[in-house]
Amino acid sequence: MNKPDPAAVATIPIKKIDRTGIKSADDIVAVEEPLAIRLTWPELDNAKYVIRDIAVTMRTPGLDEELALGFLFTEGIILSADQVVQVTRPVGDDANNIILIELNDVPALPAGRLERNFFITSSCGICGKASIDAVRTHAQFDVRGDEFMMPAEVLATLPKLLARGQDTFAGTGSVHAAALFSSVGLCSEVYEDVGRHNAVDKLMGANLCAGRLPLWNMGLFVSGRSSFELVQKARMAGCAMLAAVGAPSSLAVELAWESDMTLVGFVRDGRFNVYAGPARIA
Known about the structure:
Layout: E1 9-18, E2 21-30, E3 33-42, E4 49-59, H1 64-74, E5 84-88, E6 98-103, E7 118-120, H2 132-138, H3 152-155, H4 158-164, H5 167-172, E8 176-182, E9 185-186, E10 191-193, H6 196-209, E11 219-222, H7 228-236, E12 241-244, H8 250-258, E13 262-268, E14 271-276
Parallel strand pairs: 3-6, 4-7, 11-12, 12-13
Antiparallel strand pairs: 1-2, 3-4, 5-6, 8-9, 8-10, 8-11, 13-14
């Protein structure tokens, strides 16, 4: 296993306590810092630029550009990488924690959508933000019917394959991971972050930049539980399946059924539960 990205971890002094007593030691922890995502685009006469602070997310540094672009895509704020002129850091003391994305035109969103800022914690994503109807309206890719079939025996191997790519988790034990899989196993790099939704956004942003969307005939595998937000992000990319080591929420199950997706939970120890779309499990 490779060493974690130095920007993703920090060494801190701790006290270790066991039956033999107390001793000083150093430990490695995952870094958690805010990232402000800021948008700018030209006004109709190109005389000046509009600037909007869109979101603040608590994330593990690294792949910030992919994280920001993935967030904008999975939230329906941008539809393709062609809308992005450049991604920069503003000058200043907080430059490492601010990312500025310049668009070639105003985002095509309902009036007032950009007037409300998001604050995203590392644990819950954007809580209570959207309805199932809103997700269905903003998804530009359909979910293909039965073209993606997943052998049960291959699905059961995904946790071990994911663990092999979790370099930061191996050193800290405190980050989530996300990766794509096909009918033969994992088929992408493993993306890690203190926020499960951030790990998914990093993955989606990387695929957006590489021109690989929609992600038809692929599934999304995550290390934690399946929340509504994760089903939403997979749905926006056209994924037919979301599988997780943990359990789903009731709204995640409802959205999966509404979106014709397959939702699988508790993938561990050679077993799993299918909560929606069982026909894709071979």
